[in-house]
Amino acid sequence: MKWEKLFEPIQLRRLTLPNRVMMGSMHLGMEGSKDQEEALISFYTERSGDNGPGLIVTGGISVSPEGDGGHHFLGFYREDDLRVMKRLTDSVHEANGRIAAQLFHAGRYAYSQMNGVPSVAPSPIKSPIHREVPEELTEIDILNLLESYAEAGRKAKAVGFDAVEIMGSEGYLINQFLSPRTNKRSDKWGGNFENRTRFAIEVLKSVRNAVGDDYPIIFRMSGLDLVPDSSTPEETIQLAKKLEEHEADILNIGIGWHESTVPTISMMVPRAGFIEPALKIKEAVNIPVIGSNRINDPLLAEELLYKLDMVSMARPFLADANLLAKAKGQALDQINTCIACNQACLDHAFEGKAVSCLVNPRAGREHKWTIKKADKTKTVVVIGGGVAGMEAARAHAELGHTVTLYEANAAIGGQFNLARKIPIKKEFDETIRYYTTELNRLGVQINVNHKPNADDLLAHSPDLVVLATGVVPRLPVIPGIKHAIPYPEILSGNREVGKKVVIIGAGGIGCDVSHFLIEKGIHDILLLRRNGKMGEGLGKTTKWAMLQDLKQNGVTFRTNLSYEEITPEGLKITNSETGEQEFLKADTIILAAGQESNIPEEYENLSQKGIDIAVIGGARLAGELDAKRAIYEGAKIAFEPETISVR
Ligand code: NAP
Ligand code: SF4
């Protein structure tokens, strides 16, 4: 691949960026916490350097106390946070990187209980995803805020940031001023378009005044709000022109407010599915424009850069800190691609936990999981080539150990080989491609179609055997169970499915199977569970979109019931509220009733033969198994062998 665009430098005032990729702002959940200071600095430093992103933008750093957006935040108004910022910029610069500070104010998305001061907004209107009614800003408050932005800009420059990004999208404070949905003021800060844009422009002017002429300012503006009664497409273009006129150096185009009910970055959104607004803005202005959302592949980035000046990739750098270095070195198949699952990044951030990455659990742990060859090389045998086993093999090999991997099936991948059949989960292919490449590159000996017995294992004289034998589908005790089909047989395409389907089990897999069937044109689907809600256990940031999509496709759900009998014609249930029996007719009944650990008998007694055994992933604990835990456990036994619970 000859890169024409990706590695072309770009000049922003005094700052030269060596390539066209910005690592977009992500809240890491490590900010403002003493315990996480090293983690935060190591995280950004690892992503810095000649072949790192052209520019890193920090998570939002609050310009004033009521503007913090959650549990852990950095604030320009806190002395100790300025010390951390200085350490951060020094460390990034030492690694040859470039980093911008995002000037942030959450407005009505802030939590007074966490911040200790009331939240504020242009008008006292509660967000639909929030419990608090913000206080309306007075004229004096607004002028003070402009000074806070200016002060934040001055401090950002003083502590060594290379640029600032003014956060004006995603429904935060500046966006709240811009939109008629949230700005109902009748003074000069609200009403017509001119007045609603006043705050954004005044912020830009005050920051410019504070940082001087040679300092780059990125303005992150919303290209598409995706909420009712908000700014029009014409207003969005006009705003971009005004920002250009008032000396923004580059426009970074955000998509969707946090309260929007349209998925914008989940796996179900096609790659670069929301690039249109950035292209429209690019046509209207003469300053550079950055496109974002679901750009997870350097080839796609290169293609987009024929129409845009930069692309923003945020989560892809969680998944692979060396993404661009690998692209430059023509090692695209070695890239650990972000699969847009949100499970270890956004879901963690919303829960107030430090973010990591499902496919790269080292993200956020760089300070303690250092990659250096082990002093003593171990011989490690991994049984099971699902994600837990693949990661255990990969991580041990990366640390210099000698690794053999056994997989009973014809290909490695485990449950991911099933998941990749779900139409919205095609990205899982990338994870299997990554592991296949990496295991080969690192010299792991892979034996497929092979279930080793105890003697096979002893022949390796292993120091450690990792049992990653995964799970088997649970077969509940229901009369006539033989008439139901376990989900793996459906997903592997081995069984015919009728028009009317009942699925026993409404967790993540029940939902996945429904998506699989919808794609095949089957819409009469009833998801059942005995108690609880549909899709329980799915992450906060994806569950709503997934359930919304299923409902729109006619999938129905029932709960509070017990299963009495399965027949070739359907399923007899008892309604637990009324005690009445019902017969649910179905052409096909599918079992998605969870899993049980799979540890074949021949491995049960291995530890008695004096071999260290570690059991990980679904084999260790089938309940609440998900890929995040499986991959994490695979990495953890390699990086923290002392924590292995050997059995
Ligand atoms: P799950 O989420 O635990 O759901 C299992 C379902 O089976 C529940 O609806 C449960 O409902 C039912 N069930 C359990 N025992 C049963 C029994 N004895 N008889 C009848 N029904 C029974 O498991 P899963 O759907 O197999 O998913 C496995 C894991 O992968 C979960 O942690 C899940 O979150 C994760 N996953 C995640 C995604 C994702 O996109 N993030 C996708 C797929 C799976 P009742 O007990 O109420 O009847
Ligand atoms: Fe991407 Fe999922 Fe990793 Fe988040 S957790 S960075 S969405 S792969």
Bound molecules: NADP nicotinamide-adenine-dinucleotide phosphate, iron/sulfur cluster
Low-pLDDT stretches:
none
Strand order of the largest sheet: 3-4-6-9-10-11-12-13
Structural class: alpha/beta
Ends distance: 48 Å
The whole-number mean of residue pLDDT values reads 95
Which sheet architecture does the biggest sheet show? 8 strands, parallel, barrel
Backbone shape: globular
CA-based gyration radius: 27 Å
Task: Estimate the strand proportion.
Answer: 15-25%
Instruction: Determine the number of helices (DSSP H or I, runs of at least 4 residues).
Output: 20
Structural features, described:
By secondary structure, the protein is an alpha/beta fold. Helices cover 31% and strands 18% of the residues. The protein has 20 helices and 28 strands. An eight-stranded parallel β-barrel has the order 3-4-6-9-10-11-12-13, surrounded by five helices. Strands 16-15-14-17-28 form a five-stranded parallel sheet, with helices on one face. Helix 13 links the parallel strand 14 and strand 15. Helix 1 runs parallel beside helix 2 (79-94). The protein is globular. The two termini are 48 Å apart. The model has no long low-confidence stretch (mean pLDDT 95). NADP nicotinamide-adenine-dinucleotide phosphate binds at residues 343, 474, 476, 504-510, 512, 529-532, 537-539, 592-595, 624-626. The site of iron/sulfur cluster has 14 residues, from helix 10.
